[in-house]
Amino acid sequence: MASCRQPLRQTRAACRLVLGLGAAALAIWACERPAVAPVPEPWASQPPAAWPPLTLANRIRVGKQSFAAKGGAFLVRAGSDTLVAAPKHLLLSLRSDSLRTVDFGRLAWSWTVFRRDAPADSAAVRRLLNADPGEELDKSRVVHRDWLLFELAGAAPGVQPLRPGPQPRPDQPVLLVGWDDAGRQVVHRGRVVQAMQYTFLLDLGNADVGHLSGAPIVDESGLLVGLYSGQVGSVSWANTTRYLQEILAQRTPAAR
Fold first, then answer.
1. Is 95 in the same domain as 177?
2. Backbone torsions φ then ψ of 86, nearest 5 degrees
3. CA nearest 73: which of 231, 179, 187?
4. Listed residue (227, 222, 162, 218) closest to 190, CA to CA
5. Are residues 230 and 250 in the same domain?
6. Is residue 167 part of a domain?
7. Per-residue pLDDT reduced to its tens digit, 20-72
8. Does residue 211 contact residue 256 with C-beta atoms inside 8 Å?
9. Which end of the chain has the least Cβ crowding within 10 Å, N or C?
């Protein structure tokens, strides 16, 4: 009986060795194979003047406060859904005794996004996906997670939704999609100066961009890499899509 058990134990050990070597080989192959490059947007190869509309404006009412054409917004493609992104720092202008956190609570509120060049092309939003009654409206915190993400209440306005892309990297060319005083779309070229997990700094030269908070930032493939927050001296401050991706990951399967 012992002579039968010995070969059986040896066979099992050999099988475990083969399986272990196979798993190791697969792990090495997975690490060494090149990453699949994101598919570029077809319109990104065109001159910026030929790009589809990408930006929106906000019409906001919270309680007794209201703002028209405040800041920028844009559409985000999330699987089969289209969502609305806007800068969280807009809530700082609405902060009151009734609105102290990133949560409208029982306040009466409405938020509409529209095209600056065609104001009738608009849509209302509904649920704020990253509402958080525990997040204080504090500027030093807000600018590091400067995203509001809403569900649309109806059909989307006629602008191109943007697909989230990879994290920006230092010296990467990027494009800030903004607007002029007449509401026409204007694209500013720049480069990433410094990249962190949730934020990055970019150099846009001498472009007048101080009014473009909430504008989308895309890479040369047309993929969304950030949301423009504002200027810090001569350098522009933006948020990466890291926090956006975290919000999307927390959505329930039924809402995706």
1. no
2. -145, 160
3. 179
4. 218
5. no
6. no
7. 544 444 444 444 444 566 789 999 999 999 999 999 999 999 988 888 877 89
8. no
9. N
